[in-house]
TrEMBL record, chain A:
Function according to Swiss-Prot or TrEMBL: F(1)F(0) ATP synthase produces ATP from ADP in the presence of a proton or sodium gradient. F-type ATPases consist of two structural domains, F(1) containing the extramembraneous catalytic core and F(0) containing the membrane proton channel, linked together by a central stalk and a peripheral stalk. During catalysis, ATP synthesis in the catalytic domain of F(1) is coupled via a rotary mechanism of the central stalk subunits to proton translocation.
Keyword set, alphabetical order: ATP synthesis, Cell membrane, CF(0), Coiled coil, Hydrogen ion transport, Ion transport, Membrane, Transmembrane, Transmembrane helix, Transport
Gene3D superfamilies: F1F0 ATP synthase subunit B, membrane domain
GO CC terms of this entry: plasma membrane; proton-transporting ATP synthase complex
A Pfam short name: ATP-synt_B
Transmembrane segments: 24-43
Official protein name in the record: ATP synthase subunit b
Major location category of this protein: membrane
Location relative to the cell: Cell membrane
Species the sequence originates in: Streptomyces alboflavus
Keyword Transport tagged: yes
InterPro entries membership: ATP_synth_B-like_membr_sf (IPR028987), ATP_synth_b/b'su_bac/chlpt (IPR002146), ATP_synth_F0_bsu_bac (IPR005864), ATP_synthase_B_chain (IPR050059)
Gene expressing this chain: atpF
Record GO terms (molecular function): proton-transporting ATP synthase activity, rotational mechanism; proton-transporting ATPase activity, rotational mechanism
UniProtKB/TrEMBL annotation, chain B:
Coarse class of the protein's main subcellular location: membrane
HAMAP family named among the record's database cross-references: ATP_synth_a_bact
Assigned protein family: Belongs to the ATPase A chain family.
PANTHER family registered for this protein in UniProt: ATP SYNTHASE SUBUNIT A (PTHR11410)
NCBIfam families reported in the protein's UniProt record: ATP_synt_6_or_A (TIGR01131)
SUPFAM superfamilies attached to this UniProt entry: F1F0 ATP synthase subunit A
Protein name: ATP synthase subunit a
UniProt-listed InterPro entries: ATP_synth_F0_asu, ATP_synth_F0_asu_AS, ATP_synth_F0_asu_bact/mt, F0_ATP_A_sf
Keyword Manganese recorded: no
GO molecular function: proton-transporting ATP synthase activity, rotational mechanism
A cellular component term, taken from the record's GO annotations: plasma membrane
Protein's membrane topology: Multi-pass membrane protein
Function, as annotated: Key component of the proton channel; it plays a direct role in the translocation of protons across the membrane.
Annotated organism of origin: Streptomyces alboflavus
Length: 182, 256
Protein backbone atom coordinates (compact mmCIF):
# COMPACT_ATOMS: atom_id res chain seq x y z
CA UNK A 1 0.00 0.00 0.00
CA UNK A 2 2.64 2.42 0.99
CA UNK A 3 4.82 1.24 -1.85
CA UNK A 4 1.92 1.87 -4.21
CA UNK A 5 1.46 5.38 -2.91
CA UNK A 6 5.13 6.09 -3.35
CA UNK A 7 4.97 4.84 -6.88
CA UNK A 8 1.92 7.02 -7.58
CA UNK A 9 3.76 10.01 -6.20
CA UNK A 10 6.69 9.20 -8.44
CA UNK A 11 4.41 9.03 -11.45
CA UNK A 12 2.85 12.30 -10.35
CA UNK A 13 6.27 13.85 -10.57
CA UNK A 14 6.60 12.68 -14.16
CA UNK A 15 3.55 14.53 -15.39
CA UNK A 16 3.61 14.05 -19.17
CA UNK A 17 2.41 17.62 -19.67
CA UNK A 18 5.39 19.20 -17.97
CA UNK A 19 8.31 19.34 -20.36
CA UNK A 20 11.73 18.49 -19.02
CA UNK A 21 14.42 21.06 -19.69
CA UNK A 22 16.97 18.97 -21.60
CA UNK A 23 14.34 17.71 -24.04
CA UNK A 24 13.24 21.29 -24.72
CA UNK A 25 16.82 22.18 -25.53
CA UNK A 26 17.35 19.22 -27.84
CA UNK A 27 14.01 19.87 -29.56
CA UNK A 28 14.92 23.51 -30.10
CA UNK A 29 18.33 22.65 -31.50
CA UNK A 30 16.97 19.89 -33.73
CA UNK A 31 14.34 22.18 -35.19
CA UNK A 32 16.69 25.15 -35.46
CA UNK A 33 19.04 23.13 -37.68
CA UNK A 34 16.18 22.09 -39.97
CA UNK A 35 14.85 25.63 -40.12
CA UNK A 36 18.21 27.22 -40.87
CA UNK A 37 18.92 24.80 -43.65
CA UNK A 38 15.56 25.45 -45.25
CA UNK A 39 15.69 29.20 -44.66
CA UNK A 40 19.23 29.92 -45.82
CA UNK A 41 19.95 27.30 -48.39
CA UNK A 42 17.25 24.93 -49.59
CA UNK A 43 14.24 27.18 -50.12
CA UNK A 44 16.16 29.95 -51.92
CA UNK A 45 17.71 27.19 -54.03
CA UNK A 46 14.48 25.58 -55.07
CA UNK A 47 12.66 28.91 -55.50
CA UNK A 48 15.35 30.04 -57.91
CA UNK A 49 15.00 26.88 -59.94
CA UNK A 50 11.19 27.07 -59.89
CA UNK A 51 11.34 30.69 -61.08
CA UNK A 52 13.79 29.77 -63.81
CA UNK A 53 11.59 26.91 -64.88
CA UNK A 54 8.51 29.13 -64.95
CA UNK A 55 10.37 31.71 -66.99
CA UNK A 56 11.59 29.02 -69.36
CA UNK A 57 8.07 27.72 -69.79
CA UNK A 58 6.67 31.21 -70.24
CA UNK A 59 9.46 32.02 -72.71
CA UNK A 60 8.64 28.84 -74.59
CA UNK A 61 5.00 29.77 -74.70
CA UNK A 62 5.84 33.26 -75.92
CA UNK A 63 8.05 31.83 -78.65
CA UNK A 64 5.35 29.42 -79.68
CA UNK A 65 2.83 32.23 -79.76
CA UNK A 66 5.13 34.36 -81.92
CA UNK A 67 5.67 31.45 -84.29
CA UNK A 68 1.96 30.86 -84.48
CA UNK A 69 1.27 34.52 -85.21
CA UNK A 70 3.87 34.47 -87.96
CA UNK A 71 2.48 31.28 -89.41
CA UNK A 72 -0.98 32.82 -89.34
CA UNK A 73 0.13 35.94 -91.17
CA UNK A 74 2.02 33.88 -93.75
CA UNK A 75 -1.02 31.72 -94.26
CA UNK A 76 -3.21 34.76 -94.75
CA UNK A 77 -0.72 36.24 -97.17
CA UNK A 78 -0.59 32.97 -99.05
CA UNK A 79 -4.35 32.72 -99.12
CA UNK A 80 -4.60 36.28 -100.42
CA UNK A 81 -2.06 35.52 -103.12
CA UNK A 82 -3.88 32.38 -104.06
CA UNK A 83 -7.18 34.21 -104.29
CA UNK A 84 -5.54 36.90 -106.43
CA UNK A 85 -4.02 34.27 -108.68
CA UNK A 86 -7.37 32.54 -109.06
CA UNK A 87 -9.00 35.84 -109.85
CA UNK A 88 -6.30 36.60 -112.40
CA UNK A 89 -6.67 33.17 -113.98
CA UNK A 90 -10.43 33.60 -114.20
CA UNK A 91 -9.97 37.01 -115.75
CA UNK A 92 -7.50 35.66 -118.30
CA UNK A 93 -9.77 32.78 -119.17
CA UNK A 94 -12.67 35.16 -119.59
CA UNK A 95 -10.55 37.40 -121.77
CA UNK A 96 -9.32 34.48 -123.84
CA UNK A 97 -12.86 33.29 -124.31
CA UNK A 98 -13.95 36.71 -125.39
CA UNK A 99 -11.00 37.02 -127.73
CA UNK A 100 -11.64 33.53 -129.12
CA UNK A 101 -15.27 34.30 -129.71
CA UNK A 102 -14.37 37.54 -131.40
CA UNK A 103 -11.76 35.78 -133.51
CA UNK A 104 -14.25 33.12 -134.56
CA UNK A 105 -16.82 35.75 -135.37
CA UNK A 106 -14.28 37.68 -137.40
CA UNK A 107 -13.14 34.59 -139.23
CA UNK A 108 -16.70 33.60 -139.91
CA UNK A 109 -17.45 37.05 -141.28
CA UNK A 110 -14.31 36.87 -143.38
CA UNK A 111 -15.23 33.43 -144.66
CA UNK A 112 -18.70 34.62 -145.46
CA UNK A 113 -17.31 37.58 -147.30
CA UNK A 114 -14.84 35.46 -149.26
CA UNK A 115 -17.49 32.94 -150.11
CA UNK A 116 -19.77 35.67 -151.32
CA UNK A 117 -16.93 37.12 -153.34
CA UNK A 118 -16.13 33.74 -154.84
CA UNK A 119 -19.78 33.06 -155.54
CA UNK A 120 -20.20 36.50 -157.04
CA UNK A 121 -17.06 36.06 -159.15
CA UNK A 122 -18.38 32.65 -160.23
CA UNK A 123 -21.73 34.11 -161.18
CA UNK A 124 -20.06 36.87 -163.17
CA UNK A 125 -17.77 34.36 -164.82
CA UNK A 126 -20.68 32.08 -165.68
CA UNK A 127 -22.73 34.96 -166.92
CA UNK A 128 -19.83 36.17 -169.05
CA UNK A 129 -19.12 32.64 -170.28
CA UNK A 130 -22.77 32.08 -171.14
CA UNK A 131 -22.91 35.36 -172.88
CA UNK A 132 -19.77 34.55 -174.82
CA UNK A 133 -21.05 31.04 -175.48
CA UNK A 134 -24.40 32.34 -176.57
CA UNK A 135 -22.75 34.85 -178.79
CA UNK A 136 -20.40 32.25 -180.20
CA UNK A 137 -23.28 29.83 -180.62
CA UNK A 138 -25.40 32.38 -182.28
CA UNK A 139 -22.54 33.22 -184.64
CA UNK A 140 -21.88 29.57 -185.23
CA UNK A 141 -25.53 28.72 -185.73
CA UNK A 142 -25.91 31.60 -188.14
CA UNK A 143 -22.82 30.64 -189.97
CA UNK A 144 -23.90 27.04 -189.99
CA UNK A 145 -27.34 27.94 -191.11
CA UNK A 146 -25.84 30.10 -193.83
CA UNK A 147 -23.47 27.32 -194.75
CA UNK A 148 -26.21 24.77 -194.65
CA UNK A 149 -28.48 26.97 -196.65
CA UNK A 150 -25.72 27.58 -199.21
CA UNK A 151 -25.06 23.93 -199.43
CA UNK A 152 -28.74 23.20 -199.69
CA UNK A 153 -29.05 25.80 -202.33
CA UNK A 154 -25.85 24.78 -204.11
CA UNK A 155 -26.52 21.16 -204.37
CA UNK A 156 -29.67 19.57 -205.68
CA UNK A 157 -32.06 18.50 -203.09
CA UNK A 158 -33.73 16.03 -205.24
CA UNK A 159 -31.63 13.22 -204.45
CA UNK A 160 -32.54 11.97 -201.02
CA UNK A 161 -29.41 10.03 -200.53
CA UNK A 162 -27.20 12.91 -201.33
CA UNK A 163 -29.35 15.10 -199.21
CA UNK A 164 -29.02 12.84 -196.26
CA UNK A 165 -25.30 12.60 -196.92
CA UNK A 166 -25.04 16.31 -196.85
CA UNK A 167 -26.88 16.49 -193.59
CA UNK A 168 -24.68 13.77 -192.18
CA UNK A 169 -21.67 15.62 -193.30
CA UNK A 170 -22.98 18.76 -191.70
CA UNK A 171 -23.57 16.99 -188.47
CA UNK A 172 -20.11 15.42 -188.64
CA UNK A 173 -18.70 18.82 -189.19
CA UNK A 174 -20.60 20.10 -186.22
CA UNK A 175 -19.23 17.23 -184.17
CA UNK A 176 -15.78 17.85 -185.36
CA UNK A 177 -16.15 21.52 -184.53
CA UNK A 178 -17.43 20.75 -181.14
CA UNK A 179 -14.55 18.36 -180.72
CA UNK A 180 -12.12 21.02 -181.80
CA UNK A 181 -13.55 23.66 -179.50
CA UNK A 182 -13.40 21.41 -176.49
CA UNK B 1 4.99 -0.72 -13.27
CA UNK B 2 1.27 -1.46 -13.13
CA UNK B 3 0.54 -4.94 -12.03
CA UNK B 4 -3.09 -5.94 -11.84
CA UNK B 5 -2.42 -9.46 -10.75
CA UNK B 6 -2.39 -11.37 -14.02
CA UNK B 7 1.07 -10.32 -15.07
CA UNK B 8 -0.08 -8.34 -18.12
CA UNK B 9 2.48 -5.58 -18.64
CA UNK B 10 -0.05 -2.85 -19.42
CA UNK B 11 1.47 0.19 -21.15
CA UNK B 12 1.32 3.47 -19.25
CA UNK B 13 3.27 6.59 -18.60
CA UNK B 14 6.34 4.47 -18.02
CA UNK B 15 6.21 3.63 -21.74
CA UNK B 16 7.20 7.23 -22.39
CA UNK B 17 10.18 7.37 -20.12
CA UNK B 18 13.57 6.21 -21.22
CA UNK B 19 16.74 5.53 -19.37
CA UNK B 20 19.54 7.75 -20.60
CA UNK B 21 21.83 6.23 -23.22
CA UNK B 22 24.72 8.24 -21.84
CA UNK B 23 25.20 11.12 -19.48
CA UNK B 24 27.48 14.12 -19.88
CA UNK B 25 27.85 16.35 -16.86
CA UNK B 26 24.34 15.76 -15.61
CA UNK B 27 22.84 16.01 -19.09
CA UNK B 28 21.01 12.78 -19.76
CA UNK B 29 20.89 11.84 -23.41
CA UNK B 30 18.04 9.42 -24.13
CA UNK B 31 16.46 7.58 -27.06
CA UNK B 32 13.92 10.34 -27.80
CA UNK B 33 16.64 12.96 -28.14
CA UNK B 34 18.52 10.63 -30.44
CA UNK B 35 15.41 10.17 -32.58
CA UNK B 36 14.86 13.94 -32.67
CA UNK B 37 18.39 14.49 -33.91
CA UNK B 38 18.05 11.70 -36.49
CA UNK B 39 14.83 13.40 -37.65
CA UNK B 40 16.81 16.56 -38.24
CA UNK B 41 19.48 14.62 -40.10
CA UNK B 42 16.87 12.83 -42.24
CA UNK B 43 14.94 15.96 -43.19
CA UNK B 44 18.09 17.92 -43.96
CA UNK B 45 19.68 15.04 -45.89
CA UNK B 46 16.61 14.34 -47.96
CA UNK B 47 15.96 17.95 -48.85
CA UNK B 48 19.62 18.55 -49.49
CA UNK B 49 19.56 15.64 -51.92
CA UNK B 50 16.42 17.10 -53.48
CA UNK B 51 17.17 20.83 -53.54
CA UNK B 52 20.93 21.07 -52.90
CA UNK B 53 21.70 21.02 -56.59
CA UNK B 54 18.25 21.73 -57.90
CA UNK B 55 17.93 21.45 -61.66
CA UNK B 56 15.53 22.86 -64.20
CA UNK B 57 14.60 19.32 -65.20
CA UNK B 58 14.11 17.57 -61.85
CA UNK B 59 15.32 14.07 -61.01
CA UNK B 60 13.24 11.64 -58.99
CA UNK B 61 14.31 12.89 -55.56
CA UNK B 62 13.90 16.52 -56.56
CA UNK B 63 10.46 15.74 -57.97
CA UNK B 64 9.32 14.19 -54.68
CA UNK B 65 10.87 17.07 -52.74
CA UNK B 66 9.14 19.58 -54.97
CA UNK B 67 5.81 17.84 -54.52
CA UNK B 68 6.18 18.04 -50.73
CA UNK B 69 7.41 21.61 -50.85
CA UNK B 70 4.60 22.63 -53.16
CA UNK B 71 2.03 20.91 -50.96
CA UNK B 72 3.04 23.00 -47.95
CA UNK B 73 3.66 26.21 -49.87
CA UNK B 74 0.53 26.23 -52.00
CA UNK B 75 -1.73 23.88 -50.07
CA UNK B 76 -1.23 25.41 -46.65
CA UNK B 77 0.65 28.74 -46.66
CA UNK B 78 -0.83 30.37 -49.76
CA UNK B 79 -4.28 29.00 -48.96
CA UNK B 80 -4.39 30.62 -45.52
CA UNK B 81 -2.20 33.72 -45.86
CA UNK B 82 -2.18 34.42 -49.56
CA UNK B 83 0.91 34.59 -51.70
CA UNK B 84 1.98 38.09 -50.74
CA UNK B 85 1.95 37.75 -46.95
CA UNK B 86 2.69 34.05 -46.90
CA UNK B 87 5.92 33.95 -48.91
CA UNK B 88 7.98 35.12 -45.94
CA UNK B 89 6.75 32.26 -43.74
CA UNK B 90 7.23 29.45 -46.26
CA UNK B 91 10.62 28.33 -44.82
CA UNK B 92 9.22 28.16 -41.31
CA UNK B 93 6.12 26.22 -42.35
CA UNK B 94 7.98 23.81 -44.64
CA UNK B 95 10.52 22.96 -41.95
CA UNK B 96 7.77 22.64 -39.33
CA UNK B 97 5.73 20.28 -41.49
CA UNK B 98 8.49 17.88 -42.45
CA UNK B 99 10.17 17.94 -39.06
CA UNK B 100 6.91 17.14 -37.26
CA UNK B 101 5.94 14.52 -39.80
CA UNK B 102 9.22 12.65 -39.42
CA UNK B 103 9.01 12.93 -35.64
CA UNK B 104 5.54 11.36 -35.84
CA UNK B 105 6.53 8.64 -38.29
CA UNK B 106 9.03 7.18 -35.83
CA UNK B 107 5.97 5.68 -34.19
CA UNK B 108 5.78 2.89 -36.75
CA UNK B 109 9.45 2.51 -37.74
CA UNK B 110 10.87 -0.78 -36.47
CA UNK B 111 13.50 -0.41 -33.73
CA UNK B 112 12.53 3.23 -33.12
CA UNK B 113 8.80 2.65 -32.59
CA UNK B 114 8.32 5.81 -30.63
CA UNK B 115 6.86 9.10 -31.86
CA UNK B 116 9.15 11.90 -30.73
CA UNK B 117 6.18 14.27 -30.66
CA UNK B 118 4.53 12.18 -27.92
CA UNK B 119 6.99 13.75 -25.52
CA UNK B 120 5.47 17.16 -24.71
CA UNK B 121 8.78 19.01 -24.86
CA UNK B 122 9.06 18.73 -28.64
CA UNK B 123 5.57 19.97 -29.60
CA UNK B 124 5.95 22.61 -26.92
CA UNK B 125 9.14 24.01 -28.43
CA UNK B 126 7.55 24.19 -31.85
CA UNK B 127 4.30 25.73 -30.60
CA UNK B 128 6.42 28.20 -28.61
CA UNK B 129 8.32 29.22 -31.74
CA UNK B 130 5.04 29.84 -33.56
CA UNK B 131 3.74 31.77 -30.55
CA UNK B 132 6.79 34.02 -30.47
CA UNK B 133 6.37 34.67 -34.17
CA UNK B 134 2.73 35.70 -34.20
CA UNK B 135 2.48 37.67 -30.94
CA UNK B 136 5.25 40.21 -31.70
CA UNK B 137 3.99 40.32 -35.28
CA UNK B 138 0.56 41.43 -34.07
CA UNK B 139 2.01 44.41 -32.21
CA UNK B 140 4.43 45.21 -34.99
CA UNK B 141 1.64 45.27 -37.55
CA UNK B 142 -1.07 47.07 -35.51
CA UNK B 143 0.84 49.05 -32.91
CA UNK B 144 0.37 48.63 -29.15
CA UNK B 145 -3.35 49.48 -28.88
CA UNK B 146 -4.22 47.98 -32.24
CA UNK B 147 -2.35 44.83 -31.31
CA UNK B 148 -4.39 44.40 -28.16
CA UNK B 149 -7.57 45.07 -30.09
CA UNK B 150 -6.53 42.45 -32.64
CA UNK B 151 -5.83 39.85 -29.96
CA UNK B 152 -8.89 40.55 -27.84
CA UNK B 153 -11.31 41.20 -30.69
CA UNK B 154 -12.32 44.47 -29.02
CA UNK B 155 -15.04 46.06 -31.09
CA UNK B 156 -17.34 48.95 -30.09
CA UNK B 157 -20.18 47.65 -32.24
CA UNK B 158 -20.55 44.73 -29.82
CA UNK B 159 -21.97 47.05 -27.13
CA UNK B 160 -21.65 46.22 -23.45
CA UNK B 161 -20.64 42.60 -23.99
CA UNK B 162 -17.46 43.77 -25.67
CA UNK B 163 -15.57 43.48 -22.35
CA UNK B 164 -16.75 39.94 -21.90
CA UNK B 165 -15.77 39.07 -25.46
CA UNK B 166 -12.42 40.78 -25.00
CA UNK B 167 -11.73 38.81 -21.84
CA UNK B 168 -12.65 35.47 -23.42
CA UNK B 169 -10.65 36.20 -26.55
CA UNK B 170 -7.65 37.35 -24.54
CA UNK B 171 -7.81 34.18 -22.49
CA UNK B 172 -8.30 31.85 -25.45
CA UNK B 173 -5.88 33.50 -27.84
CA UNK B 174 -2.99 34.64 -25.74
CA UNK B 175 -2.97 32.12 -22.91
CA UNK B 176 -4.60 28.89 -24.03
CA UNK B 177 -3.66 28.89 -27.68
CA UNK B 178 0.00 27.84 -27.46
CA UNK B 179 -0.96 25.18 -25.00
CA UNK B 180 -3.71 23.68 -27.16
CA UNK B 181 -1.48 24.00 -30.21
CA UNK B 182 1.19 21.84 -28.60
CA UNK B 183 -1.12 19.47 -26.75
CA UNK B 184 -3.19 18.69 -29.86
CA UNK B 185 -0.13 17.19 -31.52
CA UNK B 186 1.24 15.67 -28.34
CA UNK B 187 -2.00 14.01 -27.24
CA UNK B 188 -2.69 12.48 -30.64
CA UNK B 189 0.75 10.93 -30.81
CA UNK B 190 0.67 9.95 -27.16
CA UNK B 191 -2.67 8.15 -27.51
CA UNK B 192 -1.62 6.55 -30.78
CA UNK B 193 1.54 5.21 -29.24
CA UNK B 194 -0.37 3.87 -26.23
CA UNK B 195 -2.78 2.03 -28.52
CA UNK B 196 0.04 0.56 -30.60
CA UNK B 197 1.95 -0.58 -27.53
CA UNK B 198 -1.23 -1.95 -25.99
CA UNK B 199 -2.12 -4.14 -28.98
CA UNK B 200 1.46 -5.21 -29.62
CA UNK B 201 2.05 -6.22 -26.02
CA UNK B 202 -1.36 -7.88 -25.86
CA UNK B 203 -0.61 -9.94 -28.98
CA UNK B 204 2.50 -11.31 -27.36
CA UNK B 205 0.88 -11.75 -23.96
CA UNK B 206 -2.18 -13.59 -25.33
CA UNK B 207 -0.03 -15.83 -27.51
CA UNK B 208 1.57 -17.16 -24.36
CA UNK B 209 -1.78 -17.76 -22.68
CA UNK B 210 -4.65 -20.16 -23.44
CA UNK B 211 -6.46 -17.43 -25.47
CA UNK B 212 -4.45 -17.86 -28.65
CA UNK B 213 -7.23 -16.78 -31.12
CA UNK B 214 -7.50 -13.50 -29.21
CA UNK B 215 -3.83 -12.96 -29.93
CA UNK B 216 -4.70 -13.08 -33.65
CA UNK B 217 -7.37 -10.43 -33.15
CA UNK B 218 -4.95 -8.28 -31.26
CA UNK B 219 -2.31 -8.71 -33.96
CA UNK B 220 -4.76 -7.70 -36.69
CA UNK B 221 -5.64 -4.67 -34.59
CA UNK B 222 -1.93 -3.83 -34.36
CA UNK B 223 -1.65 -3.83 -38.15
CA UNK B 224 -4.83 -1.77 -38.50
CA UNK B 225 -3.60 0.70 -35.92
CA UNK B 226 -0.31 1.09 -37.76
CA UNK B 227 -2.26 2.03 -40.89
CA UNK B 228 -4.42 4.42 -38.92
CA UNK B 229 -1.40 5.95 -37.20
CA UNK B 230 0.29 6.58 -40.55
CA UNK B 231 -2.76 8.61 -41.48
CA UNK B 232 -2.93 10.44 -38.14
CA UNK B 233 0.79 11.29 -38.28
CA UNK B 234 0.39 13.12 -41.58
CA UNK B 235 -2.87 14.76 -40.52
CA UNK B 236 -1.41 16.04 -37.26
CA UNK B 237 1.62 17.52 -39.00
CA UNK B 238 -0.75 19.17 -41.46
CA UNK B 239 -3.05 20.48 -38.71
CA UNK B 240 -0.15 21.88 -36.70
CA UNK B 241 1.17 23.82 -39.69
CA UNK B 242 -2.30 24.90 -40.77
CA UNK B 243 -2.98 26.33 -37.30
CA UNK B 244 0.41 28.06 -37.26
CA UNK B 245 -0.47 29.69 -40.59
CA UNK B 246 -3.90 30.72 -39.38
CA UNK B 247 -2.41 32.29 -36.21
CA UNK B 248 0.05 34.33 -38.29
CA UNK B 249 -2.68 35.22 -40.74
CA UNK B 250 -4.82 36.42 -37.81
CA UNK B 251 -1.93 38.54 -36.58
CA UNK B 252 -1.62 40.17 -40.01
CA UNK B 253 -5.35 40.59 -40.60
CA UNK B 254 -6.88 44.04 -40.30
CA UNK B 255 -9.93 42.92 -38.35
CA UNK B 256 -9.94 40.01 -36.08
Amino acid sequence: MIANLVQLAAEEEQNPLIPPGPELLVGAIAFAIVFFFFWKKLIPNINKVLDERREAIEGGIEKAEAAQTEAQSVLEQYKAQLAEARHEAARLRQEAQEQGAQLIAEMRAEGQRQREEIVAAGHTQIAADRKAAAQALRQDVGQLATELAGKLVGESLEEHARQSRTIDRFLDDLDAKAEATR
Amino acid sequence: MSDNGCGFPAPGLHSFLFKPIFEVGGFEFNKVMLLALISTALVVTFFYAAFGKAKMVPGKVQMIGEAGYDFVRRGIVYETMGKKDGEKYVPLMVSLFFFIWIMNIWSVIPLAQFPVSSVIAYPFVLAGIVYFVWVPLTFKRHGFVGGWKNITGYDNSLGPIKWLVAFIEFFSNLLVRPFTHAVRLFANMFAGHLMLVMFTVASWYLLNSWLIPAAGVSFVMTIAMIGFELFVQAVQAYVFVLLACSYIQGALAEHH
